[in-house]
Amino acid sequence: MAGDSRPARRARGGALDAIDRRIIIALRRDGRAQSTAIGEDLGLSGNLVANRIRAMDAAGTMRVVAVADYRVHGYRMLARIRLQVNGRSPHDVARELAMRDDVLSVHLTSGRYPVSCLYAFASARDMIEAARDVSAGIAGVEDVDVELLNTVYRYRPAIGPIAGHGREEA
Prior knowledge:
single chain, alpha+beta, Alpha-Beta Plaits, four-stranded antiparallel sheet
C-alpha cells in the first residue's frame, strides 16, 4: 500500500531490528509494562508490540523473566569460584556446573582457571562448603580459587546493552 506508515513486519527468525530493540529497552525499564503502554510510548500499536514480544520469545532472542535481588533472599555475599581443570574438557565441567541450582552463572574463561562460577551465599561457611563440594564432587577439577566480592557497585543480571555500543536508543 503506497504511503502506508505502519512498521514493517520483521521476518520470522530474523535478527533484531530497531523496533525490537526499542521494545526490549522499554521492557528493561519496566518488565511489567503492558503492550499497549509500550506501544503508546513508542508510537506503535499494542497488538504489534505484543506480537513482537511473542515472536522474540518464540525465536529465543528475548525472554521476560523475574529477577530477584540476592540480598532480599538472605544472601549476604557473592563469590566467584574459579576452577582449574585437568583430564576433562572445561566445557563438560561448565555444563555440569550449569545444571546445579545453587550456581548463579557459569563462564568459560582464559588462563589457568578456565571455568568460573558466580554464587550467592548466606554465610562464609556456605561459601567454604560450596568450594569443597565443587573440588571434590566434580570430576576433572584439579584446583579451586575462591574470590569473595567485597563491594558490589553494580549488579544487573541482564545480558548487557542491546542498542548500539552501550547507548540505549529511545
